[in-house]
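Researcher: Can you fold this with calcium ion in place?
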Amino acid sequence: MILNDTHQASLLSWVASANGENSEFPIQNLPYAAYRAKDSIDAHQIGVAIGEHILPVTRLLGLSDLSTMEREAATACNSPALNPLMALGPRHWRALRQALSRGLRHGSPHQSYLRPALVPIAEAEFAVPARIGDFTDMYTSLDHALNVGRLLRPDNPLMPNFKWLPCGYHARVSSIGVSGQCFLRPKGQILPPGESIPIVTATRRLDYELELAIWIGTGNSLGTPVGLDQASQHVFGLGLLNDWSARDIQAWEYQPLGPLLSKNFATTVSPWVVTMEALEPFRSAWHRDLANPQPISYLESTQNREHGAVDIGLEAWLHTDSMIRAGQPPHLLSKTNFRHNYWTIAQMIAHHTINGCNLCAGDLIGSGTQSGPGAGEFGALIEITQGGKRPVTLPGGEERSFLADGDTVILRARAEREGFRSIGFGDCAGTVLPARV
Ligand code: CA
């Protein structure tokens, strides 16, 4: 993919709120979501964000100057979920972005036709953006794997496979919710320290995981692997994902087959899907330190070396119930960047399909918890508090080793590069409710 006029930093929209320096959704972004009017029983529909507003994409169908491909792509948005558009593939995705950019840019002759269809984001509610068939959660940040491994297995922090393949497991779809999700503190078996008989209790070590949501566009047929350099053609876009985790349940259950009840009670995704085309200016070179094994051939290419990483700043914020009641703003827990990841998105896709596994439009892949090499670049509380040993003190004096009932965690992301308009992802927020008694 190459840069085009839709990425130009000088481009402005006739929607004034898109042009502010801090707007997450300038005309260079154009992310998609499934939305409807707040508190309505309408079917969800596909919208594109522009500043503080949403344009229903099917509004484009009233324009007479659409190309065939633009019309097909806009027609695919006549759906409560992004799957039909995702399945069309990159040429249609590019065409739709062109049509939206043309229609929404300053001076467009279509302004008077499109403007009445705008809906304020503040007056909308959202759904999970696609019908998800399968959800795979990866484990691909070396810094996160080392930080957590040192806590769980001090004598053997990193499994020998980690440096050779992007690790992952099949996760749960039914409990995935969109930002704003509230969920009950889960119960399960835990083995208290020093005991030999497990007890059943509500988790005492509830955590979040700061991840990117990788949304699959076009799938591959069963038996046909996706090559590394073709992988980006299969990715529709990225959002944020919080893989809520009960660490005490996880520690007892995760060997030999991996996490199950410690993860499958809730996962929260952001409503907006930022397209890979919008992220093109933020691509960066990917390096594999010579001290580590170099990738096996199916995970190695010049293209992946030159453009495989994506520079996306990631943040996790905590807003406790008492902070909300006191009118205090959320507290920044940590920030890091996706460019640190040990494996690229293309390597995850190539590895996932090397055995012929078929990915489908709307499949979701979690990037794995994102932690970086620097101080404070931690993607989960278990790392920040050293397994609960060093609680965080919040501005109001509260302490947290792990999450308390009433806590809201908000994930945020922003891509920035000199010479380009920075783009944001919108919030991915979720709230912990007390366990069922
Ligand atoms: Ca995870």
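Model: Folded with calcium ion in place. The mean pLDDT is 97.
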